[in-house]
Design brief:
The complex is a heterodimer of chains A (163) and B (286). Chain A is α+β, with helices and mostly antiparallel strands and 163 residues long. Chain A contains six helices and five strands. Chain B is of the alpha+beta class. Classes of the chains: A alpha+beta (163), B alpha+beta (286).
Chain lengths: 163, 286
């Protein structure tokens, strides 16, 4: 047993392997992503699961990385906003819709909102406006741009359904 | 592939998890982790024993004595499973629990085992008269949830290690109603919650209350009064009767004052919420 309470392991993040070396056993995935690996697109907000700014995808599921032990995610596929973004810098349809609806004000909540919305649309492609409202309950926008955020997500959902 | 280390042990069986806890009593069992990690600044354990990979905790099955739900099932899994649809109270409470991200990790076992009265599922499981399966060195035991919760409140500082394996919910009919109040009525923990099973055929009223004592509790006195006083065959119930049932529930609880609400607020809320639950159930089943 390491007397300093440190662990080393390997994480799969955005399709690549990352060595996590001598990290405290109770480090969260958020702490490892931001402080250990330098993936700062994942935002640090409330740190108790209320705001959703730290949302990442683990095996496709939207999860608060502030409430997930990093050691627990060994062997899982983790996607952060950096992995979601297209390598050529072009925007995905969801990102385009958010821009078109002026759904981005300060932008702090947007990485979490993008990943939460993508996982929702993947899980429930037929989501109605009411369901989108309910299922996006894990992401706060302190600029209160909810109407435009919801409109953008709904537009993408309808476009995918061919409405 | 996973880390395997005394500081973080991903157990694959109940026996392995129990042995690890016996070897390191200051380590904490962790499943969803949504409460434990948020609180780790105040109480950091000496290590974690993860229960996520124990298949016995993941099962949802219809059994002769009722619906079995493994303690490791997440609330998201609960909401997805067609078998759980028959326990409408659980679905209502599950939907009202926290946020989508938290529901994808928070487990039914954690929701019950955290000895706090503000979690969503315990009042519902009490109203459904659920029992819990608990694994310890002595083997597996089945205990009524009500006794399990009150024993946990009275438990010694360092009780013998045990693992909540799952709950069995007896097959039940009736009308199910769940309501809660929370700060800003948002996704946070419930300040007060009320779960009602109302069965006209069996003349049964079961009330589970959250937030009005050290743990979730049954409102036995209000249930007994309601079952005796209701004119089950009648078409209308006087509003004064629902009011009286709410008053009895409020009299026989033990709410505390904390940063969420005062004791007086909680007592008032439970009175009104029980009254409305009864009125709603009566109307819906007329």
């Amino acid at each position: 047993m390491n007397r300093h309470g440190l662990l080393s392991y390997d994480l799969r993040i955005n399709g690549a392997s990352h060595d996590v070396v001598d990290t405290h056993f109770s480090a969260t995935l958020l702490e490892v992503l931001r402080n250990g690996i330098g993936l700062v697109g994942t935002k640090q907000g409330c740190e108790d699961g209320r705001c959703g700014a730290c949302t990442v995808l683990i095996d496709g599921q939207a999860v608060n990385s502030c409430l997930e032990l990093a050691a627990e995610t060994v062997g899982r596929e983790i996607v952060t906003i950096e992995g979601y973004n297209r390598p050529d810098g072009s925007l995905t349809p969801l990102q385009e819709a958010l821009v078109r609806h002026a759904a981005i004000q300060c932008g702090f909540c947007i990485p979490g909102i993008v990943l939460a919305a993508e996982s929702l649309l993947a899980e429930r492609p037929d989501a109605t406006e009411a369901e989108i409202r309910t299922e996006m309950d894990g992401n706060l926008c302190r600029c209160t741009g909810y109407s435009s955020i919801l409109a953008a997500i709904l537009e993408v959902a309808e476009a995918r359904r061919g409405c | 592939m996973s880390v395997s280390h005394p500081l973080f042990l991903p157990a694959i069986s109940l026996g392995e998890a129990l042995e690890a806890k016996e070897a390191n009593s200051a380590a904490a069992f962790i499943a969803g982790g949504t409460s434990l990690i948020a609180d780790r600044g105040a109480r950091e354990p000496a290590g974690y024993i993860s229960l996520r990979r124990i298949s016995a905790l993941q099962e949802i099955a219809r059994r002769p004595d009722g619906l079995f739900v493994g303690a490791g099932c997440t609330i998201a899994a609960l909401l997805r499973d067609p078998l759980v649809a028959s326990a409408s109270l659980l679905v209502q409470a599950g939907r009202a629990t926290a946020t989508r991200q938290v529901r994808s990790r928070a487990t039914i076992g954690g929701n019950i085992a955290v000895p706090l009265a503000d979690r969503s599922l315990a009042p519902c499981l009490l109203a459904l008269e659920a029992s819990v399966h608990v694994h310890s060195r002595e083997g597996l035991r089945l205990t009524p949830l009500e006794r399990y919760l009150s024993d946990r409140v009275k438990a010694a500082e360092t009780p013998a290690p045990e693992i909540l394996v799952g709950v069995t919910i007896p097959h039940t009919g009736g009308y199910h109603y769940y309501s809660r109040v929370a700060a800003g009525n948002g996704g946070g923990y419930a300040t007060v919650s009320v779960a009602l099973l109302f069965d006209r055929e069996r003349h049964v009223v079961r009330l589970g209350l959250g937030g009005v004592g050290p743990t979730a509790r049954r409102a036995h006195e209000a249930e007994a009064f309601a079952e005796a006083a209701l004119n089950w065959k009648g078409r209308s119930a006087p509003t004064s009767l629902a009011t009286r049932i709410g008053e009895i529930a409020a009299q026989h609880c033990d709410p505390s004052t904390d940063m969420s609400a005062s004791s007086a607020y909680r007592r008032h809320a439970v009175r009104v919420m029980v009254q409305r639950a009864l009125e709603e159930a009566w109307e819906a089943t007329r």
